[in-house]
Design a protein that fits this description.
alpha+beta, 4-stranded antiparallel beta sheet, 4 strands, globular, YneQ
Amino acid sequence: MAFGVSRQELNEWKSKCLQGEIAFLTHYWIEPRFPGVKTITKVGCCDLERLKAWCLANGLNPDYIHYRDEYPHFDLIGSKQIEILEREHLTDHLVRFKLR
């Protein structure tokens, strides 16, 4: 279940994905399979080759890309989430969701 993201932010993420950009959407998240994890960042892009290349460039396995809807994305959690948000200079995500 997702919390802490506005409809506008979601629509902007979807728009960037559809345009073939690498787009980041961080939100609060509760998933019993991952106790202690409170946030997730969805890295989306409808250009699948670009998203796969992004995964590989960041040491992530593209086999874990989610294709369930029209917005393919890779879910980042934990230390890898923080590492990549820092590398991408997405300080606003880190501060807003108290990841630092």
